[in-house]
Amino acid sequence: MFQSQGIRIGRILGIPIYLDLSWILVFGLITFSQSSFFAQQHPHWTGPQHWTLGVVTSILFFSSVVFHELAHSVVAQHYKIKVLSITLFLFGGLARIARDPSQAIQEFNIAVAGPLASGFLAGVFYGVTLLFPDSEMLGAVASQLALTNGMLALFNLLPGFPLDGGRVFRAMVWGATKDFARATRVAGASGKLIAFGLISLGVWSALRSDWVTALWTGFLGWFLLNAAQASVAQVTIQEMLAGLCASDVMNQEVPIIPANMSLEEYSGEVLRTGRRVHLVTMDDRLVGLMNVGALSNIPREDWNMNSVQAVMVPREKILWAAPDEPLQRLLERLIAADVNQMPVVTQLEEGAHIVGMVTREAILRVIQTRSELGAALTSR
Question: 41 and 140 in contact (C-beta within 8 Å)?
Answer without folding.
Answer: yes
